[in-house]
Predict the structure.
Amino acid sequence: MSTTPPGMPDEDKQRHGRSFDDAVQLYERARPTYPADAVAWLVPPTAHEVLDLAAGTGKLTRVLLAAGHTVTAVEPLDGMRTELSRQLPRVRALAGTAERIPVPDASQDAVLVGQAWHWFDESAAVPEVTRVLRPGGALGLVWNDMDSAAPWVERLREVTGEAAAATRYGVDAGYGTVPWVAHMRERTGEPDTWRPPLGPEFGEPEWATFRHVHSQDLDTLLAGLSSRSYMILLPEAEREAILGRVAEMLRTHPDTAGRDTYELPYVTRCMRALKHP
């Protein structure tokens, strides 16, 4: 079963997935980290060897290292992987995909996927994750999403044109979770009742939600928006026009007017599932 969001052809999904290599520095500079308590919930306390799958520039890798784990990072895009190695030169960083993971059988205590499961071909990725996990090991999926409960964040989503992207693809097309959330709602009606097709080797998935705030100045906030795949793929003039409207909205919105820094709230949604011993 493909994880292609409803209405998004495979060719478009691949184009969007590859686009991040055109925005490596924006991604590294502006994307938020993950809460330490979320990562602690995702990874079993006895885990030592952890695989960060589709690791990007190492946002999640850093949190895993800080928690004391030995991390292997797997990333398919050359530019992202090069930046990860520049930032974290002691981390073993391998070229590979979720559908072909370049590590031995039963070699990992946990496999974590940050902001990426919705790009995978589940029919190939699930057997590979199952293969590399040790008995009792954990699969952890995590997504950061801007928290629209804040009125100014909801307005930010409107100004960036996510509604137009949703019309095109039949889903929301913003930060990494949004295709995932739409895909789950299409299947089940509620995000936290979605289940990846993990098969009998895994126990019942569990869910948890964490919240954190990413404090940033205007330039960094705009860079973060620019690092989203649908923004990367826009013509430059159109992208710059959207960013100009965002800056004006932030200057005039009652919740953000007069600020030099913006406390951008995030919801971090996590799913974990344990491989049977």
